[in-house]
Predict the structure.
Amino acid sequence: MHKLVVLYPKPADPDHFRDYYVTNHLPLVTRLPGLLAWRYSFDVAATQGQTPYFAVFEAEFTDAGAMTAARASPQGQQVAADVANYATGGAVVIHYPVHDETA
């Protein structure tokens, strides 16, 4: 599995971010080809001190190729272009392969 994570610093207007994100952005995300699962939270906390992030989003794909194809697709380009409509604090995008282990 391959995971894409988006970390959002605090926006200028948190209420607008929440409303726009849920009402407009997430419906675009659900149309990404190859998307296996997704989740988000507005309740980001740090284990110590203040968190530098307001919100977090996670998406799962079968592998890096599927994620790359999704991001390059017309739907992926639409998702990327939409970020400026709500994320005035910017966004940090990371991705990585997930290795499942059991204890």
